[in-house]
Amino acid sequence: MERLQKVLAKAGFASRRGSEQLILDGKVTINGTVVRELGTKVDPTKDEIIVEGKHIRTEKPLYLLFNKPKGVITSISDPGGRKVIGDYIKDVKERVFPVGRLDYDTEGLLLLTNDGDFAFQMTHPSHQVSKTYHVTVEGVVHNEILDKLAKGVKLEDGITKPAEVEYVDVDPERKRTIFSITIKEGRNRQIRRMCEKVHLHIILLRRVKFGFLTLEGIARGTYRKMSEAEIRDMRKIAGPIPGKEETSADFVEPQQEIDRSKKTPFKKPYQKSTTGKSSRSEYKKTTYTNAKSDRSKPENTKDEHAKPSNDRKPRKDHKPKMADTNKKYKPRTR
Questions:
Q1: Which residues pair with 110 in a beta bridge?
Q2: What does the pLDDT look like over 146-172, one tens digit per residue?
Q3: d(CA 110, CA 215)
Q4: Which of 29, 41, 194, 304 is most buried, with most CB under 10 Å away?
């Protein structure tokens, strides 16, 4: 049995949050009954699940690397008839969706999958998966401007986090500069807005790296499947999903077993000083580490808190108080 929103995300109907919204909107039925409660348990192999009139079918998880061309919308379909990434993956039988987005004029590496948990790990800011872009701008860019991009730029939705910025190529004749920028955020049109803030005009924006994945061997407008090693390593980089019931052992170390048969030993009480001097620090309270243990006082500590006797020898630096003979006393009146 699995949660309904998890089954919908795996089937590729939407992301995990999108699947939850479909349930809340009453667009999902189980065995002919509309379900609006999140967390409902279902069995995809036995229950009949229908989303907006379409039957859910259990699919094997699929992970693709796609080289998106410029002038293509990051969507599987478009009512307006514009060119979308779905036009390039018509031979894929599984219902996949893009992991994150690249805007219309941006090209480069894009992940496609039908695994909602994997998409969440790759895109949520808490997992901090890095993405690297090559930016071609007009003019020769000086170091001061790149330093501003690296330290952070104040945008409408807040200051951007520090980024890694490096020169790639400078063409003084054509008056163009190419630099790379690596970020771990996923704000809408973030790179373009950052460049606009420092007065840089972008000619071409291309994503060349997602985590450690690159465009090597992938021609523009084509795709390839990710290997099992790449999927496993990307999950390790992103880390586990907080609050997820089932956790992969690939990136979580097993907890150390505790031997309950062994009792925690007592700490030794503080011993009285053998120097003969009394000090408040020598009479500290005895602490115990086992709450279920006997709380009786340890042996040989009967006189630890006794008041010191008055027959002690006075200290060498001790000066007795003398009567003040200069003090004038007023006669007592009745």
A1: 66
A2: 999 999 999 998 999 999 999 999 998
A3: 9
A4: 194
Q: Which residue has the tokens 């409902």?
A: 40
Is residue 137 a contact partner of residue 195, using CB atoms and an 8 Å limit?
yes
pLDDT given at position 306: 54
pLDDT digits (tens, 9 = 90+) for 277-291: 444 444 444 444 444
Would you give the DSSP letter of residue 276? S
Q: Name the nearest CA neighbour of 250 among 269, 231, 266.
A: 231
pLDDT at 259: 46
Q: Higher model confidence: residue 266 or residue 29?
A: 29
Residue 236's H or E segment, with its range, is helix 228-238
Spell out the domains of the chain, with CATH numbers in brackets: 2-55 (3.10.290.10), 60-128+215-248 (3.30.70.580), 130-210 (3.30.70.1560)
Query: If 0-12 CB within 10 Å is exposed, 13-18 middle and 19+ buried, where does residue 111 land?
Result: buried
Catalytic residue among 78, 103, 105, 303: 103
- Helix, strand, coil % over all residues of the chain, rounded to 5: 20, 20, 60
Separation CA 164–CA 231 (nearest Å): 25
Q: Is 47 a catalytic residue?
A: no
Residue 266 has what pLDDT?
Answer: 45
